[in-house]
Amino acid sequence: MIRIEKLHKSYPIGKDSLHVLKGIDLHIKEGEFVSIMGSSGSGKSTLLNIVGLLDIHDEGDYYLNGQLIKDMNEKKAALLRNKFLGFIFQSFNLISYKTALENVALPLYYKGMNRKDRLKIALDYLEKVGLKDWANHLPNELSGGQKQRVAIARALVTKPKVVLADEPTGALDSTTTDNVMDLLKDINDEGMTVFVITHEEEVAEQTKRIVRLKDGLIISDELTKASKAV
Amino acid sequence: MFDLDRWREIFQSINKNRLRSVMSGFTVAFAILLFTLLFGIANGLGNFFKGAFSDDAQNSMFVRVWKTSKPYKGLQTGRRVQLKNADYNFVADEYENKIQYQSARIYKNFSIKYKSEASTYNIRAVNPDHQFLEKTIINEGRYLNERDLKEKSKVIVIGRLIKKDLFGEKPALNKRVNVNGSSFLVIGVFSDDGNDNEERIAYIPVTTSQMMYGNNDYISQINLGYNPELSTDAAIAFGNKMERDLRKRMGIHPDDQSALSVRNMAEANKFISTVSLALLFIIGFIGSGTLIAGIIGISNIMIFVIKERTKEFGIRKALGAKPSSIVGMVVQESVLITTIAGYAGLTLGIYILSLIGNSLEEDYFIKDPSVSSGIVIGATVILILSGLIAGYVPAKRAANIKPIVALRAD
Ligand SMILES: Nc1ncnc2c1ncn2[C@@H]1O[C@H](COP(=O)(O)OP(=O)(O)OP(=O)(O)O)[C@@H](O)[C@H]1O
Ligand SMILES: [Mg+2]
Q1: Which of A36, A154, B183, B370 is deepest in the core (most CB within 10 A)?
Q2: Of A182-186, B136-140, B344-348, which range is least confident?
Q3: CB of A89 within 8 Å of any CB in chain B?
Q4: For ligand 1, mutation pick of A13, A44, A91, A217 (most atoms within 8 Å of CB)
Q5: Could you give the C-alpha distances from B271 to B15, B99, B214, B368, B393, in angstroms and in order?
Q6: What is the pLDDT of residue B31?
Q7: Going by C-beta distance under 8 Å and a sequence separation of 6 or more, which residues neighbour residue B96?
Q8: Which residue of chain B is at minimal alpha-carbon distance from A75?
Q9: What confidence tier does B1 reach under pLDDT thresholds 50, 70, 90?
Q10: Residues lining ligand 2 (ion), CB within 5 A?
Q11: Are B148 and B142 in contact (CB under 8 A)?
């Protein structure tokens, strides 16, 4: 599903440039549940953003669903994102003036689906994350955990092949964290590839594979007990 | 362009961000309102200037005499100057090809009586051309003609209000009235675009007057219409030359304004065209100034709005929005707001102008202030276009920001 070879990424900082990813090789198959760990600044978000086509790499090759990602313009990237990818952010990134339901339905709007179908499907997904009764609330009327579940519903509504989550539980307490992780596990059980960044060992333990980054390189890549348990 | 979902997105965005929408709308509405008002008032001034002189012919001139104010060639100050038929004929012969209409005028103040009704009126003894010089409009019957003059007929053309005074609703034509003791036949009734006094006047043939009242060849004033083919400057030169020639002929000091002067509408015309030109410049300046201010206002607000929405755009793009859909959304919103607001400003402006109407004519020289719909539509189109550009340029830039950068914005 995701194949990355000798990937490099630098950020220009003034005249110099900061070499963040220094040759990453990573292969994630369809249906995997992978977490990335590593200290702050090790390049986790950078990697995830490149995978999510939100950012562009400098060197190396990246294949998404077998397609080489090269010379992407924003229009092509938008189509691929809409088709293959779902995002969950640490800071939720809901649109503040839209209700939970409208937020969830938005990716379907960009897919070109009609309003009636959009809202029906969005409501199904809100039900799935247990927020059917909150459909017509604005984000600022929801708790952090509820917001994140809305965001998850939004990430899933287009049935993406890959769900990318950058510290989805970073802003949540432990009970809501478990809630969110249960949801991600359910998604994965349904066959979606899930790729999650986290700082918390307990969260990583619940995924099936942990990749550790340090200074822009992968230092370890192993399966967890959870995967062996299956 | 018509995409119900797109419009729904836009209405939601406008509705949920009312302050910002109202702010940008207000700028546009205010610019168009100011534009409409200023333009209307400038137009009103123009209308006033044009209207102020139009009740007489545009090309009229007259020769007036009074008393000398300067001694000349042994003649004393304070001598009364008298125009005579010979002067009238001199003007007619000397400047024949520069003159379109010519009439003498003698002023009389006589009572006119019909049956038991009588009153005193201004009576002017004139030539037939006078009709065109004064823009007299004949309602009934006819004006004086050459035959009346030749035969020194006792005929009279009365103003609409004299008829009303003396005859009420009854017909006046072909009735005989008593003018200062003699019987005159009413041959015509006229009206005039000037004020009411212009319709309480009666006209009789100049020859009749000279014969009946003093039996001399005196006239009070010579009225002329200069040849309309003359340019304004040529007409002014003609007036000046005639003034010099007449003074010389009548033994008047060349600079004696009081003794004899030529009043020339060409000078007023020149003044009007200068004023109109100045007005045009002012209108252009004010108009473009207001519009530019409006355009700058919208642009600033759009830049601000788009900056504020950068993160939202980042989210939309992460969810699969193409840059073109974001640009389209912003531009459509901007154009919608400018159009509605521009229309509101326009309507309000036209309403205020209609309230003003002619109420400022007396004190402020503003008559019927209004704007031509072409100009207003033009201004609105410019504002819509500028809303389009004002929205497009920054939206295009925002839409091309990498989503990761946009998402980080706050
Ligand atoms: N847009 C950018 N411009 C310049 N430097 C950047 C940019 N984004 C990230 N960096 C730098 O790149 C390095 C890696 O950043 P990244 O966000 O990938 O780290 P991370 O592993 O996600 O850290 P954290 O756990 O704190 O989120 C950091 O040193 C960061 O300062
Ligand atoms: Mg990070």
Answers
A1: A154
A2: B344-348
A3: yes
A4: A44
A5: 54, 22, 41, 21, 47
A6: 84
A7: none
A8: B322
A9: very low
A10: A 45
A11: no
Residue of A46, A51, A89, A198 with the most ligand 1 atoms within 8 Å of its CB, for mutation:
A46
User: Whole-model pTM above 0.80?
Assistant: no
How high is the ipTM of this complex?
Answer: 0.91
A194 or B377, which is more confident? A194
Of B9, B312, B322, the CB nearest to A78: B322
Amino acid at B177: V
The arithmetic mean of pLDDT across residues A113-127, rounded, is 93
Highest mean pLDDT among A143-157, B40-54, B59-73: A143-157
Q: Is A164 helix (H, G, I), strand (E, B) or coil?
A: strand
Q: Compute the distance between CA of residue B358 and CA of residue B342 in angstroms, rounded to an integer.
A: 26
Q: Map out the domains of chain A as residue ranges.
A: 30-46+74-229
B36's enclosing H/E stretch is helix B18-52
* Tokens, residue B239: 């007036």
Is B88:B273 a contact under the CB 8 Å cutoff?
no
**From the alpha carbon of A12, which atom of ligand 1 is closest?**
4
Please, are residues A85 and A193 in contact by the beta-carbon 8 Å criterion?
Answer: no
* Inter-residue contact B342 to B28 (CB < 8 Å): yes
Closest CA to B65 of B51, B80, B45, B46: B80
Classify residue B392 as exposed, middle or buried by CB count within 10 Å of its CB (0-12, 13-18, 19+). middle
Q: B376 falls in which pLDDT band (50, 70, 90)?
A: confident
How far apart (Å, rounded) are the C-alpha atoms in residues B269 and B246? 23
Of B197, B190, B207, B64, which is closest to residue B131 (Cα–Cα)?
Answer: B190
Among A97, A110, A115, beta carbon nearest to B319: A110
- Which residues are bridge partners to A106 per DSSP? none
Put simply, the answer to whether A89 touches B400 (Cβ < 8 Å) is no
CATH superfamily of A30-46+74-229: P-loop containing nucleotide triphosphate hydrolases (3.40.50.300)
Closest atom, ligand 1, to C-alpha of A47: 18
Which residue lies with its CA nearest to atom 4 of ligand 1? Answer: A11
Choose the mutation target among A109, A111, A159, A167 for the interface with B, i.e. most B CBs under 10 Å.
A109
Query: Domain residues of chain B, as ranges?
Result: 4-53+271-408, 82-249
Indicate the residue of B318, B322, B400 with minimum beta-carbon distance to A87.
B318
How much of chain A is helix, strand and coil, in % rounded to 5? 40, 30, 30
Which atom of ligand 1 is nearest the CA belonging to B404? 1
pLDDT digits (tens, 9 = 90+) for B292-309: 888 788 788 788 888 888
B108-141 residue pLDDT tens:
999 999 988 899 999 999 999 999 988 899 999 9
Q: Is B354 on the interface with A (CB under 8 A)?
A: no
